[in-house]
């Protein structure tokens, strides 16, 4: 099972090169995985038809019960045959539908095959979370397929609408899955169905949430608006996603969970009412549309309502009828969509008002369409008739609610007959006053896929008994209720046959009076769900703009004050109501007086920040608070934290200084006296609230601290530094996630500086034809020695010549040159000593970044380019690659981020060991170094270049359009 799923995604990844090499013939190759899945499913027919099942499981995180579980039973067998079988035929159909020069054909082919793989995994999933993952994958791939023609606004809007509606339902469904999993004590679907949890309020809410997901996926009212708009997709997508695959996912989920939850009080009202309403509304709308695809689309909405009603009825015979109808629907709706594509391809239009005489020009195409439409109208001897008879019998002998549903189904069947006749007449009949539509010839390969499906519907009508054993195996999961029904084409004269005849007759009358029906339908038409959806989105956008305009006032102090006030109100309300300090251990002011002194100085620096008006003073005072926190770590005995805090604070202050170069010296915001006076008590109140909250949280501890256990665990591995070991081993998942976030944030922020592209141009000194940005603001002094009067001097920096003499500091240049390499060596030492001494990849990367910052501060942007000629993106990307690769390496032992240690002996150095955690930390080191370098280049070198360009001291080759390696 898993091999077939992986094969779909693997070949989908190769679709682009295949299409580039083979053209549209690549679809034949891409049809191999679904064809193989179909053959495999046929080989398992006897096993699952005997109520057996094939299972596969991979325990990913056993301690938390996270596993990938797959299961093939009778219902999954039916869905695999449809998803894979119809998928293979649709891919073969694509080889004739498209041309070799169709734009972005490789991407389309890959998305279609990947969707088939996601759908195959969805119906095989035996775990709620696994099912949800592949459920959302089908949503994503359907979005890409519907929006394939992205150059058209309608395609983009339709794809977005489908994504929004189905994702909303999917999120609700996820919450329901979590509640059900917790209530049942397992997320295994087969276990939940076999032993469902007791019906409680939580379970009832979960059932409603799950039904929201299922109904939105299957376009059940009020979520039905997205499916007709999805007809913007190419016809093969409509034939597959909207006939045999995606829209069936919701029906499948209802059918899968019905044996367990059909007796929950909220189940039947939701399923029967919404299913019946959808069947009527969709069928009625199909009677007044002129686009063949839209007629089929609303017909599909109607049929999906019928399928949902049957699948959710909750008795054995209705379940059997639902399974038969699922099969029949795929075998008549998919060929109808494919035939529509052929007609559109041959005639150049799908408008039934312009089509005339196509049946005579394309008799075989018309024959296939008549077979499929007859099955949709439930005419004997086709499969649709046998399935509809089974549905009538099941509802006829059901409860009172079932008999009310039967009346709705009969009315919906009349509408089905009417729009089936309308489709055949509109596509193929000769119409008075309309000239015959010119068409071109259709090849056999183009017609073969829909013909095969339509013929299967004809063969399985008389041969429906062949499927009874398989479909009955699913139906038997429901409690037996009276005499079990068995599928057959003929059950004799009875009330079910009479109801079928009534539906045919009523449908024929509706078709014959189609002109009046169309006028009446348009006269009483309500606002479409699509227009309601559009108005809701528009209203939401307007509300968001109004709220944003009210809240976003452009004042950072107002934003900060609002945040603090909300935090204060919430925390104080909790503290006053709960009084959590009762019985709490009284806090100590300090462990030694030095802590109190450092804290007092830190608080003083923080309070002084509220009174200054110069930006630079505020930055210095804010930096002092950070250094004060680092001193507290030193006094407390946490050298790792102190070292990291010192480095972070130093880099932050330098970044602030670089930014302040392009900002006014004083704060521009006008602050009244009372607002300035209110800042201090507000700040003190916020600090006090946070302090009390931290004390209460620490005093609420009931379990033993984990510190001692961490120390023992680290010592067992021969290590000493607990903090570093936690970061790169015990909680490496957190470190990996934080590294990715850090990289994304840094790249996003620095990209705002790059107006054209992330490039530094040539970064050679020859591009400068004047003074650097660091010299532009300085007045040249005539008192300095010029020319030969100057004594010979040694150049300590590679780019020292670009600095004006009055702007140079020889002492700083010498210190920068002498300390650069020792600082880099120190960073490497901090990286490799982290197992036993303070250090680690993060602080080591910061130290290496400080070395580069020192070179930049001493010599400017050209000095930085000489010190770090490589692009920062290389360090960032390589760091993420190494960390992720080390994490995935652990899969060799069964789990991600598993640590390996190698012990060896060297002749001179003696014993040594190398751990993968060090390699992981090395990735963090490179990532942090790349982030720091990126920030310095963006806020330092890039701003220098902008200043020089504005002053006209750059050569024309030095602009951003000059080229340069992009990052």
In terms of quaternary structure, the protein is single chain
What is the 3D shape? elongated
Main β-sheet: number of strands, strand sense, barrel status? 2 strands, antiparallel
Class by helix and strand content? mainly alpha
**Strand portion:** under 5%
Spatial arrangement of strands, main beta sheet: 1-2
Rg, Å, rounded: 36 Å
Question: Mean pLDDT score, rounded?
Answer: 81
In total, how many beta strands? 4
What helical percentage do the residues reach? Answer: 55-70%
The end-to-end distance, rounded to whole angstroms, is 42 Å
**Model regions low in confidence, pLDDT < 50 over at least 5 residues:** 778-792, 958-967
Describe this structure as you would to a colleague.
The protein has 967 residues and is an all-alpha fold. The strands form two sheets. Strands 1-2 form a two-stranded antiparallel sheet. A hairpin with a 4-residue loop joins strand 1 (54-61) and strand 2 (66-72). Mean pLDDT is 81; it is low at 778-792 and 958-967.
Question: Keyphrases for this structure?
Answer:
3% strand, disordered C terminus, mainly alpha, single chain, two-stranded antiparallel sheet, 967 residues
Structure, briefly:
By secondary structure, the chain is mainly alpha-helical.
